[in-house]
Specification:
By secondary structure, the protein is mainly alpha-helical. It folds into 2 domains: 30 residues; 219 residues, Outer membrane efflux proteins (OEP) (Up-down Bundle). It has 8 helices and 2 strands. Strands 1-2 form a two-stranded antiparallel sheet. Helix 3 packs across helix 6, helix 4 runs antiparallel to helix 6 and helix 6 runs antiparallel to helix 7. It starts with a helix and ends with a helix.
Length: 250
């Protein structure tokens, strides 16, 4: 009996833990309209501003919009497709009509004088409905592809932005290291002139200084490459985008 109670308690705790863990997951639904700030909406921070620029200036964004618009028009065409199956006919009994217009005792008038017919394929209603439903699914697929594009745009833009920030910080560190290496080299060179330092020690100080210079130059080049990579995403110069960050701080 005690074992049975313990088993029930364990199952109850397990169920509660699963529900507790799953609740935040179910609640965290992505709002794709806020994932990328819409055109005309002022971004709340600089990162969102960069993402908005990348979204608006991306040719792929326009392609996705054109594809969605095309799919929506396909749906409208399918709604009116049944009209293509609607057929009308009109026949005139020319002999009888002439006899009516020119009456005579010998004329024989056969009715009807004319015939009007209309027809439509009943199968077109069900077929076109299914085709329209397929087109509506294509519209939803286009919407999901657009949302997926938003995710990629945001991730790639912020990734390149963080890489640029890292490059800028790396340059600061490399510049400081170069200054320290230069001071050490100058001090070693002075001691060497005073015959207080061996040549090998001076050469090691010189090599350390040269390495620090190379790393500083590499850091500067990395900044330029990171800028180009980010500018490729946002479609404007980094210096132009930077002005918005300054306005946000005011």
């Amino acid at each position: 009996m005690e074992f049975h109670v313990n088993t029930l308690v364990i199952r109850l705790l397990w169920t509660v833990s699963i529900l507790w863990l799953s609740e935040p997951i179910l609640a965290q639904v992505v709002d794709f309209n806020q994932l990328v700030p819409p055109e005309g909406q002022r971004p709340t921070n600089f990162e969102d501003y960069l993402v908005q620029l990348a979204w608006l200036n991306s040719p792929e964004t326009k392609i996705k919009e054109f594809e969605k618009d095309r799919e929506q028009k396909e749906v409208e065409l399918q709604r009116m497709k049944w009209m293509d199956e609607l057929k009308f006919g009109f026949n005139i009994n020319e002999v009888s009509l002439d006899n009516v217009l020119h009456p005579s005792q010998d004329n024989l008038v056969l009715y009807p004088l004319y015939q009007f017919t209309a027809g439509v394929s009943l199968g077109s209603f069900t077929t076109n409905k299914k085709k329209r439903e397929i087109e509506e699914v294509d519209v939803k697929i286009s919407e999901m592809e657009g949302n997926q594009h938003k995710l990629k745009i945001r991730a790639e833009t912020l990734s390149r932005y963080q890489k640029l920030l890292l490059s800028i910080e790396s340059l600061k560190i490399r510049t400081k290291a170069e200054e320290d290496s230069r001071n050490i080299y100058d001090f070693a060179n002075q001691r060497f002139k005073n015959a207080e330092l061996e040549l090998d020690d001076l050469l090691r100080a010189s090599e350390s200084y040269n390495n620090a210079q190379e790393k500083r130059l590499a850091a500067e080049a990395e900044i330029q490459l990171s800028k180009l990579a980010l500018e490729e995403m946002i479609g404007v110069k980094w210096e132009v985008a930077k002005r918005f960050e300054e306005r946000l701080k005011k």
